[in-house]
Specification:
The structure holds 2 protein chains of 2 kinds. Chain A is an all-beta fold. Chain A is 0% helix and 53% strand. In chain A, strand 4 and strand 5 form a beta hairpin. The chains are: A mainly beta, B mainly beta. Chains A and B meet through strand 5 and strand 10 of A and strand 5 and strand 10 of B.
Chain lengths: 117, 106
């Protein structure tokens, strides 16, 4: 069955770089896009970045200068890097599978990232 | 960016019908999707492309609208529908989400 699982450090110091991994199973990254979406505690959802089935990428323009998304198809992993972290980057980070015109149909359980010294 | 506006909260009784609205600041064609999120869980896709029921979602849920005005309807509401409901558009770059409507079942 389709599964996505996020992994990451949990706690990151301000100004450092965050590295998150989304490991997928039950589908191929060359057939579906994967996005990262974050949710600060008690707040709404914010789309961050996407890597599409063909390997092209898109970023939220407000965060673009700090982001890098890539994939390793041999490991079925999507990688997100975000630099210059600030306390406002504290959030639950989800990865989700995207089907064009059909929304995010599968989501991981999320990984909580806290930015604090 | 396309701003999606939702009312913050609604309260209804079991068995009633509830409509949750989402208004876009600019047209999104029919590329509006709806998600349900329960506390401590990831969002779950309910409706895609305005009116299409996602796999495994009960027929009590339905969606309508196009352009800038969209509605998610639950009829009849059940106690388990307590959750926050988010709309999301994929017509304009970047993808954006509404701020969510928290549904309370009395």
């Amino acid at each position: 069955q389709v599964q996505l699982k996020e992994s990451g450090p949990g706690l990151v110091q301000p100004s450092r770089t965050l590295s998150l991994t989304c490991t997928v199973s039950g589908f191929s990254l060359t057939s579906y896009g994967v996005s990262w979406v974050r949710q600060p505690p008690g707040k709404g959802l914010e789309w961050i970045a996407a890597i599409w089935s063909g390997g092209s990428t898109d970023y939220n323009s407000a965060l673009k200068s700090r982001l890098s998304i890539s994939r390793d198809t041999s490991k079925s992993q999507v990688l997100l890097k975000m630099n210059s972290l600030q306390t406002e980057d504290t959030a639950m980070y989800f990865c989700a599978r995207w089907i064009r015109g059909r929304g995010f149909d599968y989501w991981g359980q999320g990984v909580m990232v806290t930015v604090s010294s | 960016d396309t701003v999606l506006t939702q009312s913050p909260a609604l309260a209804v009784s079991p068995g009633e019908r509830v409509s949750i609205s989402c208004r876009a600041s600019e047209g999104v064609n029919s590329y509006m999707h709806w998600y349900q999120q329960k506390p401590g869980q990831q969002p779950k896709l309910l409706i895609y492309k305005a009116s299409n029921l996602a796999s495994g979602v009960p027929a009590r849920f339905s969606g309508s609208g196009s352009g800038t005005d969209f509605t998610l309807t639950i009829d009849p509401v059940e106690a388990d529908d307590t959750a926050t409901y988010f709309c999301q558009q994929s017509w304009n770059d970047p993808f954006t989400f509404g701020s969510g409507t928290k549904l309370e079942i009395k």
